[in-house]
Amino acid sequence: MDLTRREVLKLCGMGALGVSGLATLPGCLPSNSPALAETWHKGVCRFCGVGCGVMIGLRDGKVVEVKGDDLAHNKAKLCVKGSMLAELPGLPNRLLHPLIRKNGKLTQASWDEAMTRVADAFQSTRQKLGPTGLAFYGSGQLYTQESYTANKLFKAGLKCNNVDGNPRLCMASAAVGYVQTYGKDEPMGCYEDIEHATCFFLIGANAYECHPVLFERILLRKRQDKRVKLIVIDPRRTKTAGYADHFIQPLPGTDLLLLNAMIHVMLEDGLIQRDFIAEHCRISGDGGASDLAGSQDFYADYAPEKVAERMGIAPSQIREIAYLFARSEATMSLWTMGINQRTQGTYLNNTLHNLHLMTGQICRPGATPLSLTGQGNACGGVRDTGTLSHLLPAGRLIKKPAHRAIVEKLWKVAPGTISPKPGFHAMELFKAMGDGRVGCALIMASNPMQTLPNLRAFREKVKDCFICVAEPFADARTLEIADVVLPSALWVEKEGVYGQTERRYQLLEKLIDPPGEARSDLDILVDLAKRLGLADLISAQTPEAVWDEWRQFSATSKYNFSGMTYDRLRKERGLQWPCPTEDHPGTKRRFVGGDDPLVPKGKKISFYGKPDHKAVIYLRPYEPTPESRSKAFPLFLTTGRVLEQWHSGTITDKVPELSRASGRARFEINLQDAHRHDIVSGQRVRVVSAFGELTMEAFVSDGPKAGVIFASFFDSKRLINEVVAPHFDPFSKQPEFKVTAVRLEKVLA
Ligand SMILES: Nc1nc2c(c(=O)[nH]1)N[C@H]1C(S)=C(S)[C@@H](COP(=O)(O)OP(=O)(O)OC[C@H]3O[C@@H](n4cnc5c(=O)[nH]c(N)nc54)[C@H](O)[C@@H]3O)O[C@H]1N2
Ligand SMILES: Nc1nc2c(c(=O)[nH]1)N[C@H]1C(S)=C(S)[C@@H](COP(=O)(O)OP(=O)(O)OC[C@H]3O[C@@H](n4cnc5c(=O)[nH]c(N)nc54)[C@H](O)[C@@H]3O)O[C@H]1N2
Ligand code: SF4
Ligand SMILES: [Mo]
């Protein structure tokens, strides 16, 4: 069968894929490259944290074709979004010039005018409010060099720790979970573990739609070995759940009951590995150090028979999956926003690690807790470079004097330059932009006026703050609050490094020029630094120079990747850190002797992120979400993604095949709820919460659990985040996009 990529996608849009020889999953297309390109260049998909390697074909200085890279970890596979990458440089509505708001209207300006305006706003705000009146809101989609430079410019140059970004909405709970439990962030496992696992535990992850190329790898593994079991936990019967051997459908917000009940069963039935716990773990309860007897007491409250009903599931389901998890040869957990975007996100992450630690399902091939990353460069660009308000690069913390001192020395600034006070996290930052505490902000590669929760409250209040937005597209909703807009280069119009889920860093080279006057975000930051008199500090001004500075910085830390020279990144299909020397092949499994160069000689496993080399088992009690159902709001709204669309849709909704395939956003409503409200598919319905309301079409199905409504947030004309509650996890500060109490109303006429 000889179909062009466009034809394949059209078929996909009609749901007709699965054609033999073409793809095993609707999301995953094989490479399909007409001989158009004159030269081929290796790169990375700009979308999700799977970080698929791509080959980019150029002809006459234009991108004409993109296909999966058969030498990369994805072995040439791409999902529908990756398969459409060639469309990116030609998308409509690109910003070609800077814009300045004059008399309420964004008006074309020169770069010099725009940057002068921005630099003036930074200077005057700093004079008026001090360093804490400034802010940077960045993204897991910036290149590492861009995030690193922004972080250094703000924290060391402007003495301002208000540096945060969309990873706060995404990976914060996972990152804090890893740091609390193991002392250092980032997963210890790798994608290759999929080929060794005999049990996959997917909780709060719709990997079929959100990490399709990895999910296909799981399905391949499952087909090859009949022992392999797939457990899926989601309040919706997702496409991922369609492949599960055990599908558990709890009410949103109740998963900590489930995980604690699994541990209860494991303790009660002797499914734990006492030797492993004694050698590699410490147990910590509410009142400090605890032990296995203390754990037994703690988990006594979580007997399946006591808690299952509150989750809307059966006790026997909990017992079944507890056994599968503990007794399988190798269990691999994969989780994403259903767990992270929760007021108990950190506790959920800790407890998921407990399951692995208590059963010894860790640091063996196939046995690993692998948090799936959302954005392509949330790990490498933001978590590793510490571009968040409480962090410094390479796992250091602002609040620790010794950490500040090391970073000041490495950045060659005077002792005491970095403020000891953490900056505002995303939710507090936008509040501060609304109440005058922050007077000037630079937003880069994020579209918060579509993607923050409780959106209306934020949007209405930030009007008095000076806001500069760096963005490639003229229709991003955040432009509505901008005073200055800077046109940004996109993907291969600029150069940088992406670091994905399995600690793999990959280089993207600049292949084409950006349109109009658009510039790379690094160039914008360097220009700003110069105008603020900080050119000496920001002395590395090209992607390669910044990489070299950051690479050498890493040598002083447990994130050591100083062996990853630009030269190696140009040649190799990415490298996994730790990678301390230029001849080191990179590390597949961290904390494992013989693989991880930082593990002391003679040790099989060492959780060296903690001073005593022991991981911590935290006993974490369940608390109900603040969004309880009531007479006024008897249902739960949960939100998330669809396969074809990327976040706020600024890119994917412009690709006709993807836009057509996803359709417009809609409310997915359970058959029973629809029946009770006398609603049928296609009818317009209103969903109302204590925070706002939205009207759009209903789609009735058996997908969501009864009592649960689902909506996606890609549609810029249907802002579901005006309905979503603003609560967040007290430790990670990650908002709970997944649980809002709502009511459903039929819209007449
Ligand atoms: N197609 C596509 N892929 C993407 C993205 C995209 O925009 N589009 N974005 C990327 C990014 S940044 C991210 S963060 C990831 C997100 O990847 P995922 O987290 O897999 O995606 P979501 O749809 O946000 O949420 C996953 C599931 O959580 C479920 N859920 C809701 N509430 C609960 C709960 O209380 N408990 C449990 N167990 N589950 C719950 C939802 O029903 C949903 O199916 O995707 C990445 N990949
Ligand atoms: N209701 C609900 N809301 C959510 C979530 C949810 O599950 N439910 N998930 C949250 C999560 S996990 C995430 S990660 C966020 C994502 O939230 P956002 O980051 O706000 O969403 P994006 O659409 O990815 O925004 C990226 C913006 O940067 C622009 N852009 C693309 N490339 C570049 C570049 O190279 N440079 C610059 N300067 N700009 C660029 C894009 O056009 C777009 O406007 O959404 C969060 N919001
Ligand atoms: S799975 Fe993610 S990285 Fe791979 S092609 Fe799809 S969107 Fe791109
Ligand atoms: Mo995300």
What does this protein look like?
The chain is of the alpha/beta class and 749 residues long. It folds into 4 domains: 5-90, N-terminal domain of TfIIb; 99-161 and 377-539, 3-Layer(aba) Sandwich (Rossmann fold), CATH 3.40.50.740; 172-371, Dimethylsulfoxide Reductase, domain 2; 635-746, Beta Barrel (Barwin-like endoglucanases), CATH 2.40.40. Helix content is 30%, strand content 19%. The chain has 24 helices and 31 strands. The chain has a 7-stranded mixed sheet, with helices on both faces. The model is unreliable at 1-6 and 8-24 (pLDDT under 50). The structure holds ligand MGD (2 copies), iron/sulfur cluster and molybdenum atom. One ligand MGD is lined by residues 139, 141, 166, 169-170, 337, 341, 374-375, 444-448, 451, 470-473, 476, 488, 490, 521, 639-640, 647-648, 650-651, 713, 720-721, 724, 737.
Keywords:
single chain; 749 residues; alpha/beta; N-terminal domain of TfIIb; Rossmann fold; 7-stranded mixed β-sheet; 6-stranded mixed β-barrel; disordered N terminus; binds ligand MGD; binds iron/sulfur cluster; binds molybdenum atom
Mean pLDDT: 95
Approximate shape: globular
CATH fold name of the largest domain? Rossmann fold
Q: Taking strands numbered 1, 2, ... along the chain, how are they ordered across the largest sheet? A: 7-6-21-20-19-8-9
